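Hi W.,

Here's what went into the run:
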Amino acid sequence: MKKTLSIVLLCVFAAFFLLPMYVLLATSLKPMQEVGIARMWHLPSRPSLDAFVKAFGRLAPNLQNSLMLVIPATLISAFMGSINGYMLSKLKFRGSDLLFALLLFGMFIPYQSVLFPLINALDMMGLYGSIWGLVVVHVVYGLPITTLIFRNYYSEIPDELIEASSIDGASIFRTYTRVLVPLSIPGFVVVLIWQFTNIWNEFLFAVTVTSDPLKQPITVALVNLAGSQVVEWNLQMAGAILAALPTLIVYIALGKYFLRGLLAGSVKG
Amino acid sequence: MGVNIIKRRKKRMLVSLAVLSPSIAAITVFVYVFIGSSIRTSMSNWNSFARLLSGEYVFVGMQNYVRLFQDPRFQSDLWNTLYFTLFFILGCLTMGIILAVLVDRNIKGVGIFRNIFLFPMAVSFVVTGTVWRWIFAPGNLPGSPRGVNLLFDMLGLNSLQWRWFTSTESFLNFNLALIPVIIAAVWQMSGYTMALYLAGLRGIPSALTEAAEVDGASPWQVFWRVKFPLLRPITFSAMIILGHISLKIFDLVYAMTGSGPGNVTDMPAIYMFETTFRANRYATGSAIGIVMLIMVAIVIIPYLVNAFKKEVKVS
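Here's what came out:
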């Protein structure tokens, strides 16, 4: 009896969560002549991939830009986070906790409070308007969260393991490559997923650092596509699906690690 | 022996600092120096491209801040932020705890539901905004409704039709046009809140709840008297995390509604973006950025201090 109520409630909530998915799919699969507003909630009578083909044609350069951005930025920030995390958990010194706190603050600031000097600095470095400029931005502002996740991860590795290897004469760096990296593969997966998702989905830096429509990441291109009044709705919805697809695939394939990243992002409860 | 330990410690500290130095340098510049530079800009007269180009710094003190707080658009932004934050947090916490309790029950196939509730976290605010804009677009009432209004029309619930995010009604400075935006934001983040609560529920030792059950407590009592108080730290963390997201909310509103008629859905982040990058009023834009920083710092700094105190106690 109570179980039935729970299941009914679960289904009601699931309907709410899936409603946008229905709209996305039903609209994007409609051929051009069916997109009229009156039939918005209907399923397409003859599903077609026309809208996807057209949206992909328009968004392909931007999808490519996002890929060119997200791969280096994710890898570099994960690597730096892991060596930082190692230092701040296993090679602590007086003041290292304060240093970590000062580093961590960078994760919470509204980027609006650094945006104008940031754009000027990128301009001076000749990086304004380029994907490489965005890579730099995402690596730097990704450091706090990646350091945090690795620091917490390494804190749980017993010190004896580290000390044992240094008695063996292994240097600090060999301890890192031989002991910590192999032990922290799951940590790397969590961080890589987290950074991939966040950078792929990011909008504020994307829209302010790049201005040439051909050089902009997918999120900016999607807003421009959806913001123009002349573009058909099925095209906009197909574009939204294309923009969301890479991170959704990661979520579906690696959901367990995705969840861990979410929880790690909450500092410590 | 003692000298050796000190030597080793010193060496370790030097190595540690050397490895950390690129990150320390980057964060020092990109966070702290840039914040300082924004404060400096916010107290200048750089409110046009020509003045910026001239390179001459004219100090105007708090003038940009004073004007900002007198500006009706910014006042509206502050009210919108307040109400958006309030209802967004309330919505996520309520939905989050309900979903967590439901998903925590021993029902076959419940994992599918957990995944459904969590997937919006993988989607960007931009995509969420694009879809929900299409859903809540009111159309031309009463003749040609669209979106949810059309759905109501088809179900014979015309009385529920409303202008949604184009509405200009307000109640105690709460612009009702924010309601659809809040719904979209709760849709995106309540799964995350559920995940936080779920981790908390799983961490409660079953001995505690079993003891209460043996004493004859009903499941309802077990939840409110035993589990819920133990979840208080999670509620607190969730409020901080959700709060700092909503204080700087930008992409969702930008993609979904923009400023809206009469700034009914405008936010400080949108005003900052438009005034800095569209109107070239750099000083005003920087001032908005700094006000946002102060708002977030008020929420975050006590939380960070608290988290570190706890950690020191444990170790």
